[in-house]
Specification:
single chain; mainly alpha; 11 helices; globular
Length: 258
């Protein structure tokens, strides 16, 4: 694991010596801050309206987790469709373009050291995004009393979803030497996996159920409600393993060509 961590730290530093990390963090901070602020403003305005009307027997219970946290983190999962390709597009494509991939492939490092190291670096940068989200959500804990358990489960779901997207992006980055192509391929695949469950709305056969299971977004829904289900956990872990396995096979093909 020492080799994996060394590669991860090297790649993580490269993110911050290039504009990628700053662009991704800025975009995410602005968009998530907007979602969080508007959700919080709606919650406060609606709460004030209910209080001014004296509540009422039929008025819905105002829950900060349901009205603020869940929508904000749910919208964050959509933003990942655009940011994950930006994080992974350079991992191997840049190595292929500059020719440094040959140095990696002829080094004493094993393929899984290289793949896990680069994927872990991407996951660390993604973790910085989660920290930005957590920094926004910490305001709620200062001025109210939200239930922290659903928040923790939602963040776990986002971590698993992000890990899946990054693993698939890592694989697609091994297929080309052009970062733009790698990013476009990753976005296309992730978008397809995001909308794949739409087929189940008009197709109830085995194909429809299969598409619903393969879609990446439905598996986050339970996490966003603070519920961990084994099938969703297994889906994300299996998808991460598949992405890393395909990356290894692709890297082995590059090694033979080298």
């Amino acid at each position: 694991m020492r080799h994996v961590w060394t590669i991860a730290m090297r790649e993580f530093k490269v993110y911050f010596t290039s504009p990628i990390a700053y662009i991704v963090l800025t975009i995410f901070a602005v968009i998530f801050g907007y979602f969080f602020t508007t959700g919080l403003a709606f919650f406060l305005d609606y709460s004030a309206s209910m209080a001014a009307q004296g509540g009422g027997m039929g008025a819905p219970t105002m829950n900060v987790n349901q009205f603020v946290v869940e929508p904000a983190l749910g919208n964050m999962s959509i933003v990942l469709l655009f940011l994950a390709p930006m994080i992974t597009m350079r991992l191997f494509a840049e190595e292929n373009r500059s020719g440094t991939i040959e140095l990696l492939l002829t080094s004493p490092l094993r393929d899984y050291h290289i793949i896990l190291g680069k994927w872990l670096a991407a996951l660390l940068l993604y973790g910085c995004l989660l920290l930005v989200a957590l920094l926004n959500l910490s305001v709620l804990f200062l001025y109210s009393s939200p239930d922290w358990k659903p928040v923790a489960v939602s963040l776990l779901g986002l971590l698993l979803m992000g890990g899946t997207m990054l693993a698939l992006g890592t694989f697609l980055s091994t297929l080309t030497r052009n970062q733009i192509v790698a990013g476009a391929l990753t976005f296309g695949l992730l978008l397809l996996l995001w909308v794949l469950n739409w087929i189940s709305s008009f197709e109830s056969s085995t194909v429809g159920r299969l598409c619903e299971y393969l879609a990446i977004s439905p598996h986050f829904e339970q996490f966003s409600r603070g519920v961990v289900e084994l099938k969703d956990l297994l889906y994300y872990l299996s998808a991460i393993s598949l992405g890393l396995f395909l990356s290894k096979r692709s890297l082995e093909a590059l090694r033979w060509k080298a």
